[in-house]
């Protein structure tokens, strides 16, 4: 390669390395702010601030959804399979809200460690399946479970 | 190593004559693949077990999102090439691809919002993936704006190349945002190392649409580059010859 070009390439590589280190450090420092939500473990370990508007996210625990019989109040537990947090919410849940699915809730953590949500968003995973396949999978699981 | 092809590529004349015959076939191939992939995906593929029919927006969202990033990859690297080798063709490529990449990023953002409303329950959320794609769109807009704002062509080419190259840092951030941070956007369905987390009857039309979108964008970029070359070199003999022979 031509020496001038070699020099330019060298200078650009140095700039690129410095720049990516700088951006890497900035993002490392801002990690907590870039994370969209706190996980139940972070809340359980006291990393999430109390009585401040934050987001909490995790999987909705099976059979934990309790709906109020007269109004739209609902409470459910979310988990990251290590810790659990109870979320209270009053309003309409998104269509994709299911037990066993991910959610992200915006709200405040009260003094009892219960999360009072003002908005609940559904988080869906990266898996896509036609309904027949799901049925087939469910049936297969059922058969497996029935065996002694 | 023989670098002749690389230096040849830098000459607008050589590039024009070489690329002349590729644009139209690529355009037809891309259009056919896109029509087949979209009709298959939008009308014949089974609905998702959880999201129902709204998942079909991936047949638009995923191809344009991939292209928005691929276009930037090309743009950023030709910025680098221009800064190091001063190839004449590189700024022409940047100028041609920037608006197309911007449109792709915009469609990705809008279709993602339309998808987000029924699936997540919100149009927009400031999570790392969505924000980094918005930054990608703004980078494209900045590049287009800067190119048009500066009258000095040499200065404009150089500044645009610098911004393009620096902006490359955003691409790994987009790609890994869903891994490094907690985001509302789901992780990648397709990886090079694992089986796709999607049924074959769903991903085959998606793959066809992605390939179609690549061909379509390639043909549009080639056409834009060719017309910019003709405009820039309109005084040279080979352009006159070309116009005389083919009557553009």
TrEMBL record, chain A:
Residue ranges of the TM segments: 9-30
Domain of life: Bacteria
Extracellular side, ranges: 30-148
Membrane topology label: Single-pass type II membrane protein
Subcellular location: Cell membrane; Membrane
Binding site for heme: 124, 128
Coiled-coil regions listed in the entry: none
UniProt-listed InterPro entries: CcmE, CcmE-like_sf, NA-bd_OB-fold
Keywords assigned: Cell membrane, Cytochrome c-type biogenesis, Heme, Iron, Membrane, Metal-binding, Signal-anchor, Transmembrane, Transmembrane helix
Cytoplasmic side: 1-8
HAMAP family on file: CcmE (MF_01959)
Function of the protein: Heme chaperone required for the biogenesis of c-type cytochromes. Transiently binds heme delivered by CcmC and transfers the heme to apo-cytochromes in a process facilitated by CcmF and CcmH.
Protein name: Cytochrome c-type biogenesis protein CcmE
Organism: Marinomonas colpomeniae
Phylogenetic lineage: Bacteria, Pseudomonadati, Pseudomonadota, Gammaproteobacteria, Oceanospirillales
Gene that encodes it: ccmE
From TrEMBL, chain B:
InterPro entries per the UniProt record, alphabetical: Cyt_c_assembly, Cyt_c_biogenesis_CcmC, Cyt_c_biogenesis_CcsA/CcmC
Entry membrane topology: Multi-pass membrane protein
Location of the protein in the cell: Cell inner membrane; Membrane
Alphabetically ordered keywords of this record: Cell inner membrane, Cell membrane, Cytochrome c-type biogenesis, Membrane, Transmembrane, Transmembrane helix, Transport
Transmembrane segments: 21-45, 57-85, 97-116, 128-148, 160-182, 202-223
Entry superkingdom: Bacteria
Primary localization: membrane
Keyword flag Membrane: yes
Location of the Cytochrome c assembly protein domain: 23-185
Pfam families xrefs: Cytochrom_C_asm
Keyword Cell membrane on entry: yes
UniProt family annotation: Belongs to the CcmC/CycZ/HelC family.
Role noted for this protein: Required for the export of heme to the periplasm for the biogenesis of c-type cytochromes.
PANTHER family: CYTOCHROME B_B6 PROTEIN-RELATED, HEME EXPORTER PROTEIN C
Protein name: Heme exporter protein C
Native organism taxonomy: Bacteria, Pseudomonadati, Pseudomonadota, Gammaproteobacteria, Oceanospirillales
């Amino acid at each position: 390669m031509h020496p001038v070009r070699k020099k330019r390439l060298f200078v650009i590589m140095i700039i690129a390395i410095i720049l990516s280190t700088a951006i890497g450090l900035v993002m490392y420092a801002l990690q907590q702010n870039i994370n969209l939500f706190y996980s139940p473990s972070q809340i359980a370990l006291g990393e999430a601030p109390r009585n401040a508007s934050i987001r909490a996210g995790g999987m909705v625990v099976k059979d934990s959804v309790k709906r109020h019989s007269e109004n739209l109040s609902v409470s459910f537990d979310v988990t990251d399979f290590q810790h659990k947090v109870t979320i209270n919410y009053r309003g309409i849940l998104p269509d994709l809200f299911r037990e066993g699915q991910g959610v992200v809730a915006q709200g405040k953590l009260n003094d009892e460690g219960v999360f009072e949500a003002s908005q609940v968003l559904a988080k869906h995973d990266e898996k896509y399946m036609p309904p027949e396949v799901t049925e087939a999978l469910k049936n297969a699981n059922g058969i497996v479970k029935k065996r002694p | 190593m023989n670098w002749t092809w690389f230096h040849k590529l830098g000459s607008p004349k050589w590039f024009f004559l070489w690329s002349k015959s590729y644009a139209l076939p690529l355009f037809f191939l891309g259009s056919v693949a896109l029509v087949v992939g979209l009709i298959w995906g939008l009308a014949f593929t089974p609905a998702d077990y959880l999201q129902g029919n709204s998942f079909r927006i991936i047949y638009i969202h995923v191809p344009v999102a991939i292209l928005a990033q691929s276009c930037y990859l090309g743009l950023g690297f030709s910025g680098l090439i221009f800064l190091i080798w001063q190839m004449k063709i590189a700024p022409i490529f940047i100028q041609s691809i920037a608006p197309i990449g911007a449109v792709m990023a915009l469609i990705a953002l809008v279709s993602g919002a339309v998808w987000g409303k029924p699936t997540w329950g919100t149009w927009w959320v400031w999570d790392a993936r969505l924000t980094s794609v918005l930054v990608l769109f703004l980078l494209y807009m900045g590049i287009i704006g800067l190119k048009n704002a500066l009258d000095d062509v040499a200065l404009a080419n150089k500044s645009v190349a610098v911004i393009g190259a620096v902006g490359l840092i955003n691409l790994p951030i987009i790609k890994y945002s869903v891994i490094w941070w907690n985001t509302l956007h789901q992780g990648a369905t397709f990886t090079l190392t694992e089986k796709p987390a999607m049924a074959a009857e769903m991903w085959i039309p998606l793959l066809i649409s992605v390939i179609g979108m690549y061909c379509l964008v390639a043909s549009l970029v080639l056409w834009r580059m060719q017309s910019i070359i003709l405009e820039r070199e309109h005084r040279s003999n080979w352009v006159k010859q070309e116009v005389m022979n083919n009557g553009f």
